[in-house]
Amino acid sequence: MAQTIVQFTPLPSLTHPSFWHKLTELKLDVLKLSDAEVDITATYRVGRLIEDRESGPGTFVGVGGSLGVEEESFGLDHSSPAIGSAVAKGVVKNYNTIEEFKAADKSKLFNEAADKIWKSILETRSTALLNTFLLITYADLKKYRYYYWFAFPAFTSSPAWHIDAHPGWIGAGTPESKLSDQQLRVIYDQLHTSKQPFPYFLIRSSSSSAINVAAIEDYSPNTDTNETTTIGFIDPSAQPQNPGWPLRNLLAYFRALYPQSTSKLRIICWRDAEVPRGEEGWKSRVGTIFLGPDGVSADGSNVTTRPNAVGWEKNVQGKLGPRMADLAPMMDPVRLANQAVDLNLKLMRWRILPELDLEKISATKCLLLGAGTLGCYVARCLMGWGVRTISFVDSSRVSFSNPVRQPLFKFEDCLNGGRPKAECAAERLKEVWPGINATGYTLSIPMPGHPIPASPPSVLEQTKKDVAKLEELIETHDVVYLLMDSRESRWLPTVIARAKDKLVMNAALGFDSFLVMRHGARPEQHSVVQRDELGGSRKHLGCYYCNDIVAPADSLTDRTLDQMCTVTRPGLASMAASTAVELMMNVLQHPQGIRAPAPRPSVTNPLDNQFDEHGEGTSVLGLIPHQLRGYLAQFRNLHIVGAAYDKCTGCSETVLEAYESQGFDMMLNAFNDPKYLERLTGLDKLYEDGEKALEDVDWVEEEGGDDF
Amino acid sequence: MLTRPQFDQACKLLVQEYESSRPSFATNALRGWLWTEHPSVSSLGYLSRNSNYLSRHLEPFIHIDSNDNYTEIDEAAAPICIDTEALTSQQYVVYSATFQVPCFYFTMYHSNGAPLSINELLSSTLFRPDILQDADTTTFALTRRNTAFPLLSQGDHPTTGKPCWFLHPCETTIVVEELLKEVEKVADSEDAKLLSWLKMWFVVLGSIIDVA
């Protein structure tokens, strides 16, 4: 008959988050820097089988009863465990630094724990410490990470315990097990009603029906034999042919105290937390094990020397090493905030729009040029969508009139000359949501029609730096928002962003009207220029300057106060800002993104501002218009489509090629010479031609003067 | 809708009925619950139990250089399976005073004590596999589907104060009472009606969560 070595299922550990919370509390309040051992208790219970649906129906995985620790483990008295559970005593040793944790003398600690168990066996003959355990920890309280390692010292046996491969371990309650269903019920009742818990116990059957549960300490080699007595223990293992770890020390106990009569033992692995009902049988397993392959024990000498012990828990890779629990998502308030924001957005997707690509949105980096009324509202709306990276560019400081209309600023920001708007806005965003990556850059955007003075040379130097910085910022972000308060300041970013193929969202305010638009994209080099019935306007969309026949010029000098501050109806800014952000979201959901065409008017209702909601220029979130003009007096939005103009000062190929080949020099020309852009694009000729045509017209004058 | 006393009664009846019945697949969801009360304040009782789920996503391995390469030679240790991980879930049925219905609260964590993130929760076997659309396969279809995914939220357990996930109960009453119309018999006693109400609630819950 083949004999196999009895292999014990290692005991897995289970740490409840409350254990870590309690350990943290203990360290902060009591232990502080002490690494003294603290007594704790743990519980383990019988294992269960749970269905592994991924492996196919009817596949079960043994989920071992784990040795569990939680907050209550630190309490002095563990309440009496339920049937099928056992309590184990242990110690936890918390180190103060990761170095100390790593350098801890694991062998020494382990051997000390094993010695303690051995000593208690020999001196007290008690089973109380057979299932003790050791836990070493290091709590990184800044990062909320807990490094730990459990050890369940178990004495090895030499020679090893064996069992006959056939029948091996068999189910209790079957005829072969020699324990009837009736007897098992009696055992169950006795275990259930006993005043003290029995992690280990003896089952004595004096005659065929009387059966008694007794303490291991009552064992008597003279009267307890394999025919009369079965050795039992609460077994956390769920594997049919592997008994659980706690059995090892019980066997060592018998070998130490009764070496002459315990080389062959009948064991019951108790795995029933409740009486089985119906057809399912008892889960407990019964088997007869013996020492050495041939059942002949060693001469029995030297039983008082402590055997070798093993039992450090293996980590997730199955290797001997510590484990780590990262509780930051639960304890770090910043992570909690991130999680909540994330959950909120996911609900939108789960409940309403499964096709919504939220990851794309949160990963989109937004550059806001202008941290004023529009900038503040745009930033908050972006944060609401979970956008993670927002950068502000602004050259001015917070002034006293700002806080009421610019929701990121407070009164105190106006004092002492006023804080720089860009940095202040970024800081305020972080106060709302610490998880946001917000930065502010104070810099001036040079404008056409505002010449850069030739001296002192530092001014030119600074301008060069600012332009380079702006180029870098546009390069490193995905979307550029033009939210400034003048027309000409939008020119430079328009050109740069088009050259770098970045999405430009443009918003501008009038007194009671607004413009929100997305700039068209540069046609791809190898794309076939398609023209539809409206001359390609729907696919090649224009920019802010496409409808101008003059270059942007100085519109700021000599303006009156109301023109300078762009006095607007207060409600307008948030409407325009929100519209711009929501329009961007629609663009992002379109597969062509920046190249999404404008929607077509509806076939059935082309004149009444109705659009085909399922055709091109639409996404899961709805239409993606090119331009929206809002009229607050009428509470109305108009959709407008503007084709790209081949002589545009902002987006024509001529201008872009000049920028790409000449760089800063071209820009300097544009800033300094008001006619440069007109000459470059040929707008000047157009103007001349127009003037000439006007002169050429033969105004026919009727003879006879007026009729009225 | 249930009043607080009705909820308490229904829960106690449930625990009683299934304490001594035989286990079967159909009644798995209803068994194993314990009724617990707050130690000092009355009318804050709730049902609770522990459950295990499987996950293929294992805890991240953090490499910690140990100064000594620890080895143990042990022929008597059975090999352990490292492919699947058992997750522990504490589940509660709590009374929602605002909506006057039972409300399902739960926590789920790895064996090292780390709670699961939203993504891990979704890829565990806790949620029924068919109710969640796979977000990676976004299409640009414009028809809006009526997803049955419940409002998963985070909140503190009303009695223990511990942070949990919960399913927002706002639409529960409507669904449960719709279903009850089909099965209820007028002649049932008050107790029987309460128990059916709670069982039906579990049925609805079971369509979303694998209350194994």
Describe this structure in words.
The complex is a heterodimer of chains A (708) and B (212). With 708 residues, chain A is α+β, with helices and mostly antiparallel strands. Chain A has 18 helices and 28 strands. Helices cover 30% and strands 21% of the residues of chain A. In chain A, the strands form 6 sheets. In chain A, strands 1, 10, 11, 12, 13, 14, 15 and 16 form an 8-stranded mixed beta sheet that branches. In chain A, strands 21-20-19-22-23-24-27-28 form an 8-stranded mixed beta sheet, sandwiched between helices. In chain B, 24% of the residues lie in helices and 21% in strands. In chain B, a hairpin with a 6-residue loop joins strand 5 and strand 6 (163-167). In chain B, helix 1 crosses helix 4 (190-206) and helix 3 packs across helix 4. The relative contact order of chain B is 0.18. At the A-B interface, strand 2, helix 1, strand 4, helix 2 and strand 9 of A face strand 2, strand 3 and strand 5 of B.
Low-confidence parts of chain B lasting 5 or more residues at pLDDT below 50?
A: 134-147
How many separate helices of chain B?
Answer: 4
Helix content of chain A: 25-40%
* The top level CATH class name of chain B: Alpha Beta
**Would you tell me the structural class of the helices and strands of chain B?**
alpha+beta
**Outline of chain A:** elongated
Spatial ordering of strands, largest sheet of chain B:
1-2-3-4-6-5
CATH topology of chain B: Yope Regulator, Chain: A
What is the CATH architecture descriptor of chain B?
Answer: 2-Layer Sandwich
* Total beta strands of chain B: 6
- Strand % of chain B is 15-25%
* Computed CA radius of gyration of chain A, to the nearest angstrom: 41 Å
**Global morphology of chain B:** elongated
Straight-line N-to-C gap of chain B: 25 Å
Could you tell me the strand content of chain A as a percent range?
15-25%
Instruction: Give the number of helices of chain A.
Output: 18
Biggest chain contact = A-B, 85 and 65 residues
Helix content of chain B: 10-25%
User: Mean pLDDT across all residues of chain A, rounded?
Assistant: 86
Biggest beta sheet attributes of chain B: 6 strands, antiparallel
